[in-house]
Amino acid sequence: MSFRSDSSSPASPSNKGPPKKLPKSQASLDSWLSATEQAPKRDSRMNKKVDAARRFPINDEDDDVAKEIEESYGGVPLSELNTTSSSLPRLVLESNHTILFKLPVESGSGLPPKPYPDTYRDAWDGQHVRLACSPQSLYPVEDASTATKKLKQRWDLIQSALLSNIQSSSDLQRAILSYNSRYRDRWNFAGLHHYFNEIADSVERRIFFQRTLPDIARLALRLPELIRHPVPLLKQQQDHCITMTQEQISCLLANAFFCTFPRRNSHKTASEYSTYPSINFNSLFEGGYRGASSVQMNKLSCMMNYFRRVTTKVPTGTITFHRRKLQDFPAWDRSVSKFTKLHVTHRGTIEDDGQGMLQMDFANKYVGGGVLSGGCVQEEIRFLICPELILSRLFTEQLADNECLIVTGVERYSDYEGYSSTFQWTGNHDDVTARDAWGRLCTQIVAIDALVFPSYLSQFRPGFIRRELNKAFCGFSSTRPAPILPAIATGNWGCGAFGGDLYLKALIQLMAAAQASRDVLYLTFGEKKLCQELSEFYSFLIKTQLTVGDIWACIRKYADDHLKTDPRSKTSIFKYIMSSFGYDESEDDEELTQKYRLSLDAAKT
After folding, report:
1. CA 97, 100, 105, 108 torsion: positive or negative?
2. Considering 51, 70, 351, 380, which one is annotated as catalytic?
3. Is 575 helix (H, G, I), strand (E, B) or coil?
4. How large is the average pLDDT for residues 505-524?
5. Predicted confidence (pLDDT) per residue in 236-294, tens digit
6. Is residue 406 part of a domain?
7. Which one is catalytic: 247, 286, 351, 379?
8. In DSSP terms, which residues pair with 424 in a beta bridge?
9. Residue 318: phi, psi to the nearest 5?
């Protein structure tokens, strides 16, 4: 497999510099890097080798790794992609931005910002999150003496339950059901019991029930102290931001752990929150008909690690949740935008390799997807290792076609390995990402949901292609000046269970990124063939200087002239486009551009 990053000429023979071939041992590699970095001239091929060698230290015992390093990516070196700037506008209260702490943010104090305002303000309506501590949150309790039910303050019941002596998972179950009694026969806690009876050892159980759980309970009961301002619901077609402290988020997640959020347990169509994801953790505690799964146990390990961390040391940063909507979208068929820089690799992950970039969440329209139930793919895993993302489920209504959710400042708490059924929590993670002027970690994640296609051919319909382009553009675009926009770190969005074609989805994202003036880090997650073909196709795009509008016409032609006559074709859209123009990489660039322009004009006609 051989990737060409660009068409630059090799360095002059008079400046030989270090050998062009990568050494096979780490010691030799270190020496090679030192000599290479001091070389007077380095061509783009050499830059690519240097970039790969820095990113992937090699094993002295593996003679094939040196070649693997060189061939692991295509496009430009990772170091050439734009990354984030920590410069931000002044944080102020605005009509479309709710801030739950006092301003200004004092950086370096070592303390979380103080809650705003000075006293608790209640809101029990359809525009805000209904909190259990509201005086208007009532719950029917049976009076044993009269055999009738009386309404009591839900918060009084919760306080009594959480301050009781909870020494086992059975005690925890009884406490949770004491203020959720109507679900006594519908909720099961088999997964929670299995975790503490079979997975945790005796020392871990003792520490959890004697130390960690009481700390989580105290954190949850600080709700009226920490959340003094009503939390707005991020409803459809409302462009709004919520910024809160990590401490406030930990308090709300502690309440989700104890299943205290009222009116959030029914999923019936007519229920108040039927268009919102679930937030109470009861579904995470359940066991299936085959018992508790390994994935569920590892999900619980992620959450236990998070609560251990935030109850041991209070996090001091802030996080912004921004529901974004767009009204105006590009005319894709007339776009003259040129394609931006691309780095494509079959190694790595978005969270590890996309630092300083806008990182993709391959979202469900109900953000978080199955994170609190059985799902465990890209979105769920990101929410598990960065549990503060789970809070978005509390207030984010399902995403519409012209909307996305952007979350800035989340911290990573866990390491993992595996994917889906092989997912495994492997330990604690210390996030050393720098913070911005608002106290947020310089990590930004955008959640955009792809369509689910019932048949392979349906995704090539113009309306569906336009929808996916618009959705990606909604997430990728920004009002900030283009030169400082960080790259988008993405991958096989909308593929797998969603039924998307790997090649079409990659092309759609490249088009949206070009229109939004963002570079692209594309991780194919082990798909080496896709990595190679995307690299070759990117070279074709750069050589021919085709525009986004040109590629729109090519996609239409692929669907109309190719798939309709040969629906079972295995020819990727990349190869189809290149072959339809008789692409020959040895041709002169000017001749190629002129030839493709004539071909495109004929195709459009």
Report:
1. negative
2. 380
3. helix
4. 97
5. 999 999 999 999 999 999 999 999 999 999 989 999 999 999 999 999 999 876 778 99
6. yes
7. 379
8. 417
9. -130, 160
Listed range (16-20, 82-86, 373-377) with the worst mean pLDDT: 16-20
- For residues 45 and 142, membership in a common domain is answered with no
Same domain, yes or no: 294 and 234: yes
| Catalytic (active site) residue 589 | no
16 pLDDT more than 90: no
Short-list 245, 272, 269, 246, CA closest to 261: 272
Q: CB-based burial of residue 590 (10 Å sphere; 0-12 exposed, 13-18 middle, 19+ buried)?
A: exposed
User: Which one of 51, 361, 519, 536 is the catalytic residue?
Assistant: 361
Q: Are 230 and 123 in contact (CB under 8 A)?
A: yes
User: Distance between CA atoms of 175 and 195, rounded to whole angstroms?
Assistant: 18
Number of domains comprising the chain? 3
- Answer yes or no: do 57 and 102 share one domain: no
Tell whether the model's pLDDT for residue 492 goes beyond 90.
Answer: yes
| pLDDT at 343 (0 to 100) | 98
- The answer to whether residues 102 and 116 touch, using CB atoms and an 8 Å cutoff, is yes
Over pLDDT 90: what percentage of the chain? 71
- 3-state SS class at 9: coil
Residue with the two structure tokens 């990595």: 531
Q: Residue 582, by phi and psi: left (phi above 0), alpha (psi -120 to 50) or beta? A: left
Q: Say how far apart CA 399 and CA 602 lie, in whole Å.
A: 39
One domain, residues 575 and 599: yes
Residue 599: domain span: 444-604
| Residue 361 among the catalytic residues | yes
End-to-end alpha carbon distance in the chain: 37
Q: What is the mean pLDDT of the chain?
A: 87
CB atoms under 10 Å from CB of 169, counted, come to 23
Q: Are residues 272 and 199 part of one domain?
A: yes
Do 138 and 172 sit in the same domain of this protein?
yes
The predicted structure's pLDDT at residue 52: 54
Catalytic residue flag (residue 566): no
What does the H/E/C string look like for 394-430?
HHECCCCCCEEEEEECCCCCEEEECCHHHCEEEEECC
Note whether 361 and 445 are within 8 A (CB).
yes
